[in-house]
Amino acid sequence: MLLALAALMAVGCSKNNSATISANVEGAAKKDIIVAQLAVSQMRAVDTLKTGDNCMAKGEIAMAGEEPNFYYLVYNGKRLASLILKPGDNVSVKVDTLGKGLVIEGSEESLLLQHYENALAQVNAEFNALSAKFAEAVDKKETALAKDLSAQLGRLYIKHRQATIKKIMENPYAFANVQVLYQSVANQLPVFSAEKDFLLMQRVHDSLATIYPGSVYLKSLQGQIKSGQNATLLADKIAKAGEESFPNISLPDINAKNVDLSSLEGKPFILMFWTITEASQKMFNNDLKELYRKYSGNGLEIYQVSLDVDKTAWATAVKEQELPWISVCDGKGSASPSIATYNIATIPYMFVFNKNGDIVARGNLTNKGEIEAAIKKAVK
Questions:
Q1: Does the pLDDT of residue 49 top 90, yes or no?
Q2: Distance between CA 129 and CA 109 in Å, rounded?
Q3: Strand pairing of 301-306 and 326-328?
Q4: In this structure, what is the dihedral angle of CA atoms 357, 361, 365, 368, given to the nearest 10 degrees?
Q5: Quick one: which of 50, 205, 209, 345 has the most CB atoms within 10 Å?
């Protein structure tokens, strides 16, 4: 009796460290359905479900820990369904090979995630249609129509942002909120990229951290929050800098001589962060050289910061490209203090300052015409 009781207690105390997926993929008889997991910044396949003659497949996904994870069912490279699973879940999915007719049962989190994705898909369709009309109006020089369409695009974006925030507030403990914070409209306009959006991210993080303190997704989100906090600090620094109108950085050039960014004070200049490891960025330097030659006579200077760890390769690239401006690199890569000073999250990234030290443009500027427009503002 004691042995039987002990066995019963062992079964009762054991934890189910897997989630079950039952999939009915119409049109995919005897085909492989890939189960991929979002490992914070990249997707990795974790299992394969084999469908039978009836297009049905079933499998158990082994999971470590008790925190939810993001999973995706993929067929022929196309995402069919997005799921949020945690140990013990038993989820059923019905969909066709094009991702249409999706029905998810057994996971409230997955249903909310589906709502978020459907809302974004609808906005993207409307946004792309309006963008096409806007481009056509611009080509035909229909100024009034282009202005109206531009306003419509702005209203559509804001409406989606507001609706998303409302949904997040209505479901403060939903794990789906983590992923929705990284949505982008038309793959180019982040829904949450405003200066104070880190406060919303902090709210989502703090709510979920009480339930899932060990989640790797929350740890990653904390980094995003820190980036937002740094951006606010940067804005404060620039606003309160007094005589020094922008935070100074001092880095070595190809001759190992430190050059201060503050040496450009009183001049219009570009502060740019880049890496030689991206061929497109090296090619972009050719456009930048043309603009530099065109506007250096107006006092324009460029302070280009390389975020490479191989200083020899960087110095070689600078010499081979004959870059005429100030090129600096400390060889610390992503650990360079300059990244924290200017809150750099992606590269290439540039700031365009006028002679008063005011920022006239900033961001992932790679379009030559867009950069020239910013330079014109800076040098006038």
A1: yes
A2: 31
A3: parallel
A4: -90
A5: 205
